[in-house]
Design brief:
The chain has about 775 residues and is an alpha+beta fold. It has five domains: about 190 residues, no CATH class; about 120 residues, no CATH class; about 150 residues, no CATH class; about 200 residues, no CATH class; about 90 residues, no CATH class. The protein is about 35% helix and about 25% strand. It is built from 18 helices and 34 strands. Strands 27-28-29-30-31-32-33-34 form an eight-stranded antiparallel β-sheet, with no helix packed on it. Strands 1-2-3-4-5-6-7 form a seven-stranded antiparallel β-sheet, with no helix packed on it. Strands 21-20-26-25-24-23 form a six-stranded mixed β-sheet, with no helix packed on it. The longest helix has 28 residues. It starts with 7 loop residues before the first helix and ends with a strand.
Length: about 775
């Protein structure tokens, strides 16, 4: 097989790809552990060993492949494949729409495919390419026998493992110890005769690589940290240094003076045109690009290498110049990663930059949008619905390096229109409070709401398309009713009204969430002779349930719920108590029902009343989780109104008991309002059942046929069958009650004199269900009724 030459072109390509991996690998974690430095150093050394045909190259290729596959965060099963995700998200600066179409959401299948493709290509080059070249060139296992000392390291790892060291420590110990074997060998054999520093200096490719890395890192630092003074100096001097390094790397002894002067002019024009807009900028870019192309052609002619000329033009125009001006994809993080890092960096092709004194600005791939004078920049609504509104916290005083709380104000910027949302100049916005989804109260210096900011096109249903830019700033002085009184309620929303007609609860499914629906619930209530409308959020840490009251008290507002029940308890000497049952679903099989007791306080706000449970604990909410299919099968779809109910005659509240994990028994914890709270009174069967069938441990199943209703309970250590006519309810007296049922393979057998009733052991749709009730007399089947 023909050997593969690892020539200078291969070396340069390898170093470029390796540098890209290093750049994003280092950026992917907040700190650089020592084992990362070791792995990075090992891969760079491997490139030069392949170029020099070193006999140690095979050993380093093996060690690097093992380290790459074992160390956390560097392989496909590592922590979110961080380096490759970083490369993927850098595409958002180049073309946000294209990157979004590839799959912005980290759980989208196309996103995972994109990461795997990037990982596969780069891993193939970093790990497999050196191994393949060495095997084809028959240089894979020519390292000295002394290198087999690594076997001792493995043995030591095994001993350390027996002593309880973690795999992370073991991998680190192996990499740190093994990667220095070539260097140790060189020092032992040649250390007395040759200088290691001199040997490195004589390795010209290594020296030039270090010089190029230092040059570009300096350029990126100037741009990323916004060193204004260094930008003109860098754009004048760095292109010349880049030209000299490229020329010297190809052996040019005399660097043409005019070419270096032209490189200075090209960088100066780039700096000059970025300070202007319009025609001046276009002219400056065109002249700068023409000069670069001319110098690149001349350099290619001097060195007889088209690759060097192209490298000068591409490296200067697309890397060196933009990096010094801060247009650097390396600064980009995606919005989803920022949810974990609590910082917003990139959205819709726009990303946040910061300078050396910690102030922030806004850029896109075309240039600066907002100057770096803001202390924080964030998406107002967290980015859930791709809103385009930014909240910028800035200092009123330009001289304030770290402003006090009173020296801060908010401004609002529309990303798509690239305009600030206008607020009167004489009012400073000092605080922001979420009133409801899509509506914010803006507080002035006196800490009173001066304006309401309304998001566009928000009706609670969500929209995958672009939102319109019609943001509304509503002056409270010209808007008599609070903004949260104008809630848009769909026509198909479910509505419940209290007995005194003072509280109305409305809820609806937004259509979002899939198997875990996203519900919105609203409340209309009488307060101070006026009708108020607000979002209803009982699932919160606060004592109140209206969104406005919760936000004003600093509590987090959770998602809404479907309202399943509303009852009223009238207590002598007190305002009415409103019992509210809410429903939420975690998945297609996991449901939750919660119950709250509410009462108006002295300020006209709905406040939670506490429950005293069977353990003597005071709770703001009672309820339970359950498996939806199990309860549906057990009750044949009849039991959804049983989970929470109120006995109007006694005003006792029945809540499904939370005795078994996710399993319903059809027995209930009973509460009664006494002494200012709901007090636990015991456990009982449902009040809707006839007294003759209320004593049981748990419900097994209910079967309905055209003629009869069959209920099977576990009572007194055996199965019990209760039978009603199909036109009757379970509140009526059963026609027949049969005890001592016996379970068989897939049925339960009940005997009553000469009659035998056979019902399925398994619930309808589960197990080996034969889907019918069989009635026998004297061992002969007289009737079969399908369930």
């Amino acid at each position: 097989m023909k050997q593969i030459a690892y020539n200078k072109t291969m070396l340069v390509t390898d170093l470029i790809l390796t540098s890209i991996w290093i750049l994003f690998a280092v950026k992917s974690t907040p700190g650089i552990e020592y084992w990362k430095i070791v792995v990075i150093f090992m891969r760079i050394v491997l490139s030069f060993q392949l170029f020099d045909c070193s006999r140690w190259s095979g050993y380093c290729a093996i060690i690097f492949a093992c380290a790459y596959s074992m160390l956390p965060g560097y392989h496909i099963s590592g922590f979110q494949n961080a380096p490759f995700e970083m490369i993927y998200y850098a595409l958002h600066i180049v073309d946000w729409d294209m990157a979004h179409e590839l799959g912005l959401h980290p759980y989208a299948p196309i996103f995972q495919i994109s990461i795997y493709v990037i990982w596969g290509l780069l891993t193939g080059w970093l790990v497999l390419m050196p191994v393949i070249i060495l095997i084809i060139n028959k240089n894979m296992f020519k390292f000295p026998k002394w290198a087999w000392i690594n076997i001792i390291l493995f043995a030591l790892i095994a001993l350390l493992g027996l002593r309880g060291y973690t795999i992370y420590d073991l991998c680190t110990f192996w990499v740190v110890g093994a990667c220095y074997l070539p260097e140790l060998y060189w020092i032992i054999v040649n250390g007395r005769k040759k200088s290691l520093v001199a040997a490195i200096y004589r390795n010209k490719p290594l020296v030039y690589y270090c010089a190029f890395v230092a040059l570009f890192l300096c350029a990126m630092t100037i741009g990323f940290k916004n060193f204004y003074i260094m930008r003109p100096f860098g754009l004048i001097c760095f292109p010349v240094i880049f030209y000299i390094l490229l020329g010297k790397s190809e052996g040019i002894r005399d660097i043409p003076t005019y070419d270096t002067l032209f490189m200075c002019i090209s960088g100066s024009l780039y700096w000059f045109c970025l300070e202007f807009r319009g025609l001046e900028r276009i002219i400056g870019f065109v002249i700068s690009a023409l000069i670069l192309i001319i110098v690149g052609v001349r350099l290619a002619k001097f060195t007889s290498s088209k690759f060097i000329g192209i490298s000068l033009v591409v490296g200067s125009a697309f890397i060196l110049y933009p990096a010094m001006w801060g247009m650097n994809p390396y600064t980009v993080l995606d919005g989803h990663t920022c949810l974990y890092m609590k910082k917003w960096r990139s959205y819709d092709g726009v990303y946040v930059t910061d300078n050396f004194d910690g102030k922030c600005g806004l850029r896109d791939r075309y240039g600066e949008i907002l100057p770096m004078k803001y202390f924080t920049i964030d998406i107002l609504d967290g980015g859930r619905y791709q809103k385009v509104l930014l909240c910028c916290l800035e200092s009123i005083s330009d001289d304030a390096a770290c402003p006090e709380e009173d020296d801060k104000s908010y401004t609002f910027f529309n990303i798509h229109t690239r305009q600030f949302i206008k607020i009167p100049d004489d009012i400073q916005i000092k605080n922001i409070s979420l009133i409801r989804k899509g509506v914010y109260a803006l507080f002035n210096e006196a800490d009173t709401p001066a304006f309401y900011l309304v998001m566009p096109e928000y009706g609670g249903h969500g929209d995958d398309g672009k939102y319109s830019m019609n943001f509304q700033i509503i002056d409270k002085r010209s808007y008599p009713a609070p903004i949260y009184d104008n809630v848009e309620i769909p026509e198909d929303a479910e509505t419940l009204l209290s007995s005194d007609a003072k509280v109305r609860l409305i809820s609806w499914d937004t259509g979002l969430g899939g198997t875990s629906p996203d519900y919105i619930s609203c409340i209309q209530y009488q307060a101070n002779d006026s009708l108020k409308t607000d979002f209803f959020y009982p699932h919160s840490e606060g004592k109140y349930v209206c969104a406005t009251d919760l936000n004003r008290n600093g509590y987090e507002v959770y998602d809404g719920s479907r309202i399943d029940g509303l009852w009223q308890i009238d207590s002598e000497g007190e305002l009415p108590i409103y019992i509210v049952a809410t429903y939420n679903r975690a998945s297609s099989i996991e449901g939750n029902t919660s119950v709250y007791a509410l009462q108006f306080d002295d300020q006209g706000k709905l406040k939670k009343k506490q429950f005293l449970d069977e353990r003597g604990e005071l709770l703001d909410v009672v309820g339970r989780d359950y498996h939806i299919p199990d309860w549906d099968f057990a009750t044949d779809g009849m039991g959804w109104n049983w989970i929470v109910s109120m006995d109007d005659s006694t005003q006792y509240l029945y809540v499904a008991e939370d005795k078994y994990d996710m399993a319903m028994t059809d027995r209930y914890d009973v509460y009664h309002y006494e002494k200012g709270r709901m007090i636990y009174k015991g456990t009982a069967a449902g009040h809707w059942l006839h007294p003759s069938v209320r004593k049981f441990d748990y419900l097994c199943c209910i079967y309905r046929t055209k003629e009869r209703l069959y209920r099977v309970d576990w009572a007194a250590s055996s199965y019990r069958l209760s039978i009603w006519d199909s036109n009757k309810s379970m509140g009526d007296k059963p026609e027949t009650i049969i005890h001592n049922g016996q379970a068989r393979d897939n049925f339960i057998k009940f005997t009553n004199d000469s009659y035998t009733f056979i019902v399925p052991l398994y619930r309808k749709g589960q197990g080996d269900d034969f889907d019918r009730v069989i009635i026998m007399k004297d061992s002969k089947i007289i009737k079969e009724n399908e369930i």
